Amino acid sequence: AQTMKALVLNRYGGPEQVMFADLQRPLPKPDEILVQIHAVGLNPVDNKIRAGEMKPLLRLQLPATMGCDLAGIVVEVGERVTRFKPGDAVFASIFGLGGGTLAEFAVVAEHAAALKPACLDFVSAASVPMVGLTAWQSLKERAKVMPGQKVFIPAGSGGIGTFAIQFAKHLGAEVATTTSAGNTELVRSLGADQIIDYHTQEFEVVLRDYDAVLSTLPGKSQQKSLQILKSRGSVVSLVGPPDAAFARSKGMNRFMVFVMWLLAHKFHRLATKLGVEYSFLLMKPDGCQLAEIGELIEAGSIRPVIDKVFPFDQAKEALAYLANGRAKGKVVVQMKQTNESVTK
Predict the structure, then answer these.
(1) Which of 62, 76, 133, 231 qualifies as a cystine partner to 275, CB 3.0-4.6 A?
(2) Which among 73, 11, 9 has a CA at the least distance from the CA of 39?
(3) In whole angstroms, what separates CA 20 from the centre of its chain?
(4) What is the distance, to the nearest Å, from the Cα of residue 257 to the centroid of all Cα atoms in its chain?
(5) pLDDT value at 133 more than 90
(6) How far is Cα 277 from Cα 230, in angstroms, rounded to an integer?
């Protein structure tokens, strides 16, 4: 069997639990495609998984390959696959589907993949799936953002923020964000209407009557964000606490449903008191939504923002760089691929 190089998490813990290993190249099941990976977009969840913070929400067989997002070329398809053929350039998130992307090859469920937008190189395409699907599922599906509504997206210069601002603008919303003074121009260029320098201003003092908040920062910031909503507005949280509705949607047992109800109880109670809604969202891979996001990128409505690209052999450094929380836009790992233009 052929082997491949992969970045593997041996057990939950610090960065030292992550190391390169030679693994067997995976074989696609009937409804999967095998992708030769050209680039991998990193996400904060990668470091959370490593630290064990996602254990209640995500079942992993350790040791496990790191990484969720990818862009690359299909090299083999399972017998039931109809949407892709060898040679297709694709992008996908395989978050929660088992397997990882920080490797030379990965298997991807057919339903999770989409054709790579022709206007994007592999690095830019790899930066899109998780943040794109998160913005789509939270703002469009969950918060049902409409033209003319006001949306607050904190941390506008980060990986999710840079994408979500543009997507909220595409939905016709007025967007407020927080960032440091040095990133003001970046978030303005993405369409932010109201920009709050979090070093000098408190967003909950400045903002009023918002329809939706995309909560990306845990703790006090999330509690304060409930205060800026108008009645029947909604907070969609990406950082938790997970709630009973989430536990039920995942088919968890009654004990876990109760535990999650307990975790989110304080938030739900506060939300109810203020007449607003709180819900927790964990992004689901979806190739059809990803294809539609690809069309928005092709149309020029949204552009990926890349902060820094690391070579594969520096993937551990890339994860550490992401963890320090200073990235403007996305951090991407690029595989050694000579002559990319041939396969675009």
Answers:
(1) 231
(2) 73
(3) 24
(4) 25
(5) yes
(6) 10
